Amino acid sequence: MTFLKTVSCLCGGILVASSMLASCSGDNDDPDNNKKPDEEIVDSKNLDYSASNADSWHNYSVRVAELLARDSEQLYNSWNESYNGGKSFAEIFKSANTSAYPSYLSCIEEILDGCSDIANEVGDAKIGDPYDLYVQGKREEALYAVESWYSWHSRDDYANNIHSIRNSYFGSLDGSVSANSMSALVNSLDSDLDSRTKGLIDAARTAIMDIPQPFRNNINSSEALKAQEACADLDRHLTTVLKPFFENLDNSHESRLGDIVANYVDNVVLPTYKLLKERNAAMLEAVRNLSGNRTDVSFEKACQAWLSAREPWEKSEAFLFGPVDALGLDPNMDSWPLDQDAIVNHLKSGNFNDLLWGDGDDDSKVEAAQNIRGFHTLEFLLFKDGNPRKTNN
Description:
mainly alpha, two-stranded antiparallel sheet, globular, A middle domain of Talin 1
């Protein structure tokens, strides 16, 4: 994730902020008073949908939704059909005969690394960064560090991240334990270890959902601290206990590991990405409908479509390897925090090329494009204070 600088100031006792620019009545951001007469200070925090910007607002929303639909389709097709013009990544991963994955154990290690990475990210970054900023007295920075705060969907996102770990370990999407799963193998060899692993997964999810809603208003709560600790416990267990358990298995288990990897791909990764593709296509339709039928009801339907499309993405974050990483699809779809001022500037310019990048572009151009597209840009355009935006403000 790309973290942005935030600034804040007090106006009449009220804390006001923008992601990059801020202004207060009676203050001047230019100490030398060199502001040109035609320059306009962008107050991206308070920007709202209006009749004057509606056309640009909808054009932008549709374009972002189109890119999300395209990226999610590319992600699914890379796993299911062809990756870089060759075999599907599913075939590559399940074969376990490449330099990257020379054995089924190496595939299991990749899966477990993905699980521990997202457990750490949820606890240390998604919950921990806002918490740390808040207790340091940087309250506005803390707010802007909260992922999905426009929709008030943060807790659900984080809980779904833990579901992605559960699904990877259970080898299923419905909470049942597949016969060909890491859980089933661990249980057959060390039932206590399996119980502890399940308990830590459940404890992390429960602790997250115990944070009072919305998280943006409860950043410094005791429940948030407990959720951090539960995620840290899970990360530590996956890294120092469960992964070594698999690494210490003898070669007689290699065939069983192959069955686990195949089941993981066929019954966790592929259906998750298929659902992501389908729901992003449905979200695009809802956003297009909103553009053509500009009513509060259409805004509500587009927001519901966003929430629906968001779920499989968050449930995929335990497997952010392969095409989603190599093709830049993770930051394309899920960059956070947002560069709100760049979004406002793009809204004004309507230059869709600003959203695109290609092979050979330098890092700054790629990052600039990714910062004004994806789930959270669309969230900003659809939601305000946890609710769908209104056509009349």
